[in-house]
Amino acid sequence: MFILSELQQKNIIEAIKMAEKNTSGEIKVHIEENCSSADAMERASEVFEYLSLHKTAQRNGVLFYLAYEDHKFAILGDKGINEKVGQTFWDSTKDLLRENFKKGDFEKGLTLGITEAGNQLKHYFPYNTDDKNEISDEISRG
């Protein structure tokens, strides 16, 4: 059984679409039951590469990774983002996720995190009229 209902998935996808209206950054959510690595960041790196998030034109992809049965998550940004934002950005976004995930509210945690990431990304990677959606907004599953 998948942890999110169809409606919750649609709400998360809508949050991605809304965030990407203000930025050329690309946001992706990947959810799996268990983390196949001891470290969530290590697994997120594998997923990041597998989903080709490192191939965006401006290297501005962000992955929200969740392994719900193992209670692990990570947020991973590509090189272009990490050169511009500080660790405080990632920490504050992780805190939003953690706070809601502890309550079992994965939808709220992800939508708030995505919104926050979009707000930050628009400062460094504003939306361009010729912007293309380089990465599908659909939630991927492990």
TrEMBL record:
**Gene3D superfamilies the UniProt entry points to:** 3.10.310.50
Read off the Pfam families from this record.
TPM_phosphatase (PF04536)
Q: Which residues form the TPM domain?
A: 3-118
Matching InterPro entries: TPM_dom
Which protein, by its recorded name, is this? Answer: TPM domain-containing protein
